[in-house]
Amino acid sequence: MAKISRQTKEIINIILFLLVVGLLVTFYWVYPLSLAGAGMGRNDLDKYNEMLDTLSELPNEAMLWQESGLNPDTFRIEADGLTTLACLRCLPEDSSIGTVFLLHNDNHNRDSILWLASALLQSGYVVLAYDQRASGRSTGQYRGGGQYESSDLNELIANIDLRHRLDHPLIAVGFGTGADAVILSSQSESRLDAIVAIEPYLTSTRLLDKLKKQHDMLWFPFFRSVVWWWYEMRSSYAVEYTDISDIDPVGAAALVFVSQEDFDDEEVRQLETVSSSSGKLRLQTSPAANSSLETTILDFVKNLPVDSDSLISTSEN
Length: 317
Fold this sequence. Notes:
An 8-stranded mixed beta sheet has the order 1-2-4-3-6-7-8-9, sandwiched between helices. It has helices at residues 6-40, 45-54, 63-67, 114-122, 147-162, 177-188, 204-214, 223-235, 266-275, 290-302; strands spanning 73-78, 84-90, 99-103, 126-130, 165-166, 170-175, 194-198, 253-258, 281-285, 314-315. Strand 1 (73-78) and strand 2 form a beta hairpin. It has 2 domains: 1-40 and 204-241, no CATH class; 60-203 and 245-305, Rossmann fold. By secondary structure, it is of the alpha/beta class. It is globular.
């Protein structure tokens, strides 16, 4: 059998070394960067950057809402020093019976929940909807894992209340990261009377696991830690990483929808357990059709327990 020359061995070692380096770069740089951007960043980044280069402020048009006959009042608020939220407010034809804040799903904007806004308006509620940070007409490149979105919601509630334009009951409805936001806000914002959370992530661990599955990412050692580190580096957010031990009880009457396949997840069971003593949580599987979801949400908000203290109106329409 012929011997391998020393030069050939060195070439093989170099090739093996480069392969190992390539794998490390792929799994600890390319993959996590891709997931951090695709999973936590805005999905229209190129268009967003182009508009920022040509405009002093993103337009806050509401064409679809106007075409639906809702006549929205558009405005912006500064959520923090770096983020402004594009908001709109719609009034029912008759006197209002409450106020609902709508938070859309990930990789969508406020137009995606026009169907629910229309139903709520027809039922007599004032509706406030907005593009969450890093989406639509609002600024920012990265979402905040539900934590920053909760602060955004609290800031908007305070802003509207300052104008004396809140009618109770005050309800927040959120999807995805928006669902996490309304749950967190129920624990910190006393003006909220009820929340509806549609398929929240509940923890950073569960969020990353779902993003990995959604984007068909391969597992590698320390997957969650590496992706979260890159996310914090790229976003410059100081977002706390949360796991099942960080799940707290809901702070207001809550209707939480979870998909059938996720209903027995340990995070969902934990939320149910820690909230059981208050009796505020109603947990059920997500319906397949928006019409069924709409009916269930309307039934929930219309049958909230009456609290004479919380139902004092501060509205000046």
